[in-house]
Design a protein that fits this description.
The structure is a homodimer of 314-residue chains.
Chain A: H1 3-8, H2 20-25, H3 34-39, E1 46-48, E2 54-59, E3 62-68, H4 74-85, E4 93-98, E5 102-106, E6 131-132, E7 139-140, E8 150-154, E9 157-162, E10 167-170, E11 176-179, E12 193-196, E13 209-216, H5 218-222, E14 241-248, E15 261-263, H6 268-278, E16 301-302
Antiparallel strand pairs in A: 1-15, 2-3, 2-14, 3-13, 4-5, 4-14, 5-12, 6-10, 7-8, 8-9, 9-10, 11-12, 11-13, 15-16
């Protein structure tokens, strides 16, 4: 193999985004690798997105797709659905891009007399930092987590659980979406949303309401130039990134929908994928780690019509 | 406090970048917060950068400052110094921007007859994935780490240690700088360098040679638009980000140097800073985490002449 090319390929990690025609010419991926797990997956290992729990955020340079988590933040998700139907965010902007932390959008006039009205959406909703653990079918990851007693996945979401307290909650990982709040616990309503773009800020867990996470389009949010004001806020209005619209998938015409499936996290295939990340079997690796963390397990997606060969860990 | 402003300020976390004049008007930061620890720091808690171990990477929109770690990768660092003196990277480019992973630069003609020559620099240097733990004065963090038996800081670098094997190594955190390699362990020489721009890819630890980490300017690297080719490589040469120059600080004229100090990691002040991140005491937080990970402890920097009020956790 060409040496320069080989070195370029040295990190085969999040890496399996290899074009279909190229894959067809290659031998099967090595046993135990992520790519092999995805290649061997069955149609039943994948699921579509729920149109009532999916948001399309339309920006000038592309679409960001968010999956909402009504099982963890029912009041916030209901409010966010109402705000989307009302087209609340259309023409507003990303106001903040804070390096190694979050991007955040909302109404720059929020809290002033010029603030947008909320219509049937609620001005205040209860804090939803954690929920009762009963009824949470956690697919545990096998390794310990420093921040919580137990961690794993629930319907595609990274979740922590404390069996002593009987609570479960969404965790702050890359791509997590939360509802900005004031100092009061119940001061968020979903109008201002943030997305984690850096190292997992797990210290925020149970301090703020997470409402979902980005399924597709993180590369658009994460590359927004950082704001130079305090906390990464843009100092000039023209630096903000305009939001064309935010819509519930249920309200998007079929011809404008993105064809996308996500890997289920309650299957043997998922367990195999976790193991493939705990211990990398690609030839490049010399020492498998024997460990994984929930925030190092992004959810694979695929274009359903393209079959397994288009599946890629994101 | 204005409600919108308050909510904007909701994440006071990496947040203490408050302008000097504003700070002077405010009451002292709350006991136990990061800002208070920095405000109370003494001049001896800070250190300058070693001119022989500091690289300036000059890009069109700013300067990235890297501190090298000769205590962990002496052969690579020696080679990188030689390459910088030779102006090896001047006019080359960032070739890859891989979301939630790395940016990487080098010679796009590497491995071809058009490749730049290395002069007195070595084509091959030994793998430096880990070193003997003897002589490593680890300032341990108090919490367990999933990937390694012990973790902490050594002269500002996040380090892991295995007392059984008697080895210590630099860890992959946001801002870590490493030397790209081929499948062979000893196939890196420092010509191609990558910087971590996402969630800590700790599975790379002990699989590749880390040579240092970014001290300043991460927001420039992390916001580079992602490449759309496999592994985040730019598909067209014009998408690459040109490198004006990479220089050792020792070779930069005094008038062009950035005035910068970094917090020492072998002091009581450092321990207090770690504790302020383990348990956030800012009013916004309702539940201190009681836990921290080495990759959630970026190194504070300050402009020395501006005094403590300019100190900010980065």
């Amino acid at each position: 193999m060409d040496r320069a090319l080989a070195r370029h390929l040295f990190l085969v990690v999040v890496a399996s985004a290899i074009a279909l025609h190229a894959r067809a010419l290659e031998p099967p991926a090595k046993e135990g690798t992520m790519q092999r797990v995805l290649d061997d997956s069955k149609p039943s290992d994948w699921r579509a997105l729920d149109p009532d729990n999916t948001l399309y955020v339309e920006l000038a340079n592309g679409r960001v797709i968010i999956e909402l988590a009504p099982a963890f933040a029912p009041a916030h998700v209901a409010n966010i659905r109402e705000l989307a139907r009302r087209k609340y965010w259309d023409g507003l902007a990303i106001l903040r891009s804070h390096d190694n932390y979050v991007v955040q959008w909302g109404d720059p006039e929020g809290g002033t007399p010029k603030a947008r009205t909320l219509g049937k959406a609620r001005k205040q909703v209860p804090a939803e930092f954690a929920r009762d653990a009963a009824g949470v079918a956690l697919r545990a990851v096998p390794d310990r987590d420093g921040w919580a007693a137990e961690t794993g996945f629930v319907q595609g979401f990274a979740v922590a659980r404390d069996p002593k307290e009987g609570k479960a909650w969404l965790t702050h990982c890359y791509g997590s979406v939360g509802a900005g709040r004031d100092n009061a616990a119940d001061s968020s309503n979903g109008t201002e949303l943030y997305v984690v773009i850096g190292q997992s800020p797990r210290h925020l867990d149970r301090n703020i309401t997470l409402v979902g996470r980005v399924i597709s389009g993180m590369e658009i949010l994460s590359a927004i130039p950082r704001g130079t004001g305090a906390l990464g806020f843009f100092e000039k209005p023209e630096q903000r990134v305009a939001i064309k619209s935010i819509r519930l998938l249920a309200e998007v015409p079929a011809r404008e929908q993105t064809s996308l499936e996500v890997l289920r996290t309650d299957t043997a295939t998922w367990d195999a994928l976790v193991e493939s990340r705990r211990n990398r079997r690609d030839d490049w690796y010399l020492r498998p780690a024997g460990h994984i963390n929930i925030c190092n397990l992004p959810l694979p997606t695929r274009i359903p019509d393209a079959g397994n060969n288009a599946a890629k860990p994101t």
